What we know:
- The protein is an alpha/beta fold and 292 residues long.
- Helices cover 35% and strands 24% of the residues.
- The chain has helices at 35-45, 60-65, 70-78, 82-93, 108-113, 140-151, 213-218, 230-240, 258-270, 276-291; strands at residues 4-8, 29-30, 33-34, 50-55, 96-101, 124-128, 132-134, 155-160, 170-176, 182-190, 201-210, 243-247, 252-254.
- Strand 9 and strand 10 (182-190) form a beta hairpin.
- Helix 3 packs antiparallel against helix 4 (82-93).
- The radius of gyration is 20 Å and the shape is globular.
- Bound molecules: 1-O-phosphono-alpha-D-glucopyranose.
Amino acid sequence: MVRKAVLPVAGLGTRFLPATKAVPKEMMPLVDRPAIQYIVEECARAGLDDVLLVTSTGKSAIEDHFDRRVDLEAALAEKGKDEELAAVRDLAELAQVHSVRQGEPLGLGHAVLMAAGHVTADESFAVLLGDDIVDPDEPFLERMIEAHERTGRPVVALMEVPHDQVHLYGVADVEPGEADGEFRIRRLVEKPSADEAPSNLIIVGRYVLPGTIFDVLRDTPPGRGDEIQLTDALQTLAADEPIVGIRLDAERYDTGDKLGFVKATVQLAAARDDIGPDFLTWLRGWLAEQQG
Ligand code: G1P
């Protein structure tokens, strides 16, 4: 059974400076929840109740966010603010949140390797990258876990992008797999040029991996960008026996850059039961005004 999730959150968030000078990128709010909360909620929904944050200097606000805050709870209780109290308390119950420091920013593969003290070699675990938020109503991670349990192979999420974007991602060479939307991956290339890319199916930030990946990562030399790449370690495993790709068919919000972040904010706000209807009414009116 897969119970543990590893969340690499050590990045500097330079694309969002100056917002991320004193606040971790992962704590930037989408409506009223920090981006990282959507990810931990996704873990909890998929039954992953043990979350390891791979952090760096300046990221302690993330740990605080998932901890109890008794002074705040007492103040909310005294004022009779029951809804807010429940929201604050429930957060600490979502999962057991642990953390480990990456120390040096040596790449995603290196960040995942930091989990080796927490996840054993015979345990499988999920890796979720914070820039990709998946529609909260879709059980996509559950499907990935199911595929891993069925096949015993590493599972990665895949998505089609236009050819001029493949250089930003890990790209998969695929054959049809056991089920609809499932692929066998024989080869992966990290951030290839459009010419070198084997397809336009890219890795999105969701992985379900066996603990044996740690040994492979230890032997993986720095690759693209002089960083230890998770894609390269997966390529080593895929060369032995195909790994599994699952096409992400749920809505995905890429919050990794400013435009994506604003789009995600708009979409998530529109989907909300509380503010969604009023927000959409306002948005339609505002757009009509802009056009008029
Ligand atoms: C990482 C991975 C890449 C993957 C991407 C998904 O890249 O190395 O293979 O496609 O995440 O977001 P990064 O965005 O950290 O450069």
